[in-house]
Backbone:
């Protein structure tokens, strides 16, 4: 066999060595400090971005005001408001008529009334068609809540004022805001006694109820029909000049007499 030339072996060995060095250099990981720094900073920046919303301050403190319960022909309606910075941010009915067809009417009307209240920022909202009694009771309780909201705001403003005169004014305002309950004299009717009790605040009737009313036989039905309506009208009118309920004339007459007696005791 022919022997390979020594010079040729040297050339081949040198070429192999150069190839190995090139291969090692290509496989060596990058040790660039700038690249390592950028890679380590990315997670920290992302974490900082996530922490920012969680660490932010919440909305300004909100207060809750609940209006008086209003008796309607189909049940009680009572409204609660959430107020922040002097504005209504939420309205809800904590009580509403229920049972039978009332469930459907309440589900239809209350969400709409809540929405209109927040939009109007007052009790000047439209009644929901098909739910007149619920709508009327809602607006009355809403107005009561609004009145309480104003009284609270006024009392807060008075307490924040300086000077002895402002303190006296705050005490006076607090006294006016206090509600009082007055019960009228018993009015005897052909079917039984009627007696009315009213709650008065700020010179207005905020609640009316019959503590006595005719009962037994057909009187139960007539009382259930007439008394809630008379209560509602007494609050709306603010006096005893209210309409009698058809079919319950005697109860209506006795109610108005007792109501007038209660108003007289309350100072008109």
Residues:
């Amino acid at each position: 066999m022919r022997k390979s030339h020594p010079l040729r072996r040297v050339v081949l060995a040198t070429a192999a060595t150069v190839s190995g060095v090139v291969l090692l250099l290509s496989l060596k990981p990058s040790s660039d400090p700038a690249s390592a720094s950028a890679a380590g900073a990315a997670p920290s920046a992302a974490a900082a971005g996530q922490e920012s919303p969680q660490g932010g301050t919440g909305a300004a403190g909100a207060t809750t005001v609940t209006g008086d319960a209003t008796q309607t022909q189909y049940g009680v309606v009572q409204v609660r408001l959430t107020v922040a910075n002097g504005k209504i941010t939420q309205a809800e009915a904590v009580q509403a008529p229920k049972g039978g067809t009332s469930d459907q009417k309440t589900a239809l009307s209350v969400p709409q009334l809540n929405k209109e209240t927040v939009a109007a920022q007052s009790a000047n909202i439209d009644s929901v068609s098909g739910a007149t009694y619920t709508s009327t009771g809602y607006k009355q309780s809403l107005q009561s809540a609004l009145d309480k909201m104003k009284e609270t705001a006024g009392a807060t403003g008075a307490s924040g004022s300086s000077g002895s005169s402002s303190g006296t004014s705050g005490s006076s305002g607090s006294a006016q805001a206090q509600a009082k309950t007055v019960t009228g004299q018993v009015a005897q009717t052909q079917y039984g006694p009627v007696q009315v009790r009213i709650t008065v605040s700020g010179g207005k009737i905020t609640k009316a109820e019959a503590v006595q009313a005719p009962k037994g036989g057909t009187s139960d039905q007539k009382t259930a029909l007439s008394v809630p309506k008379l209560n509602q009208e007494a609050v709306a009118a603010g006096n005893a000049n209210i309409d009698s309920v058809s079919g319950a004339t005697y109860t209506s007459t006795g109610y108005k007499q007792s109501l007038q007696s209660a108003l007289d005791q309350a100072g008109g």
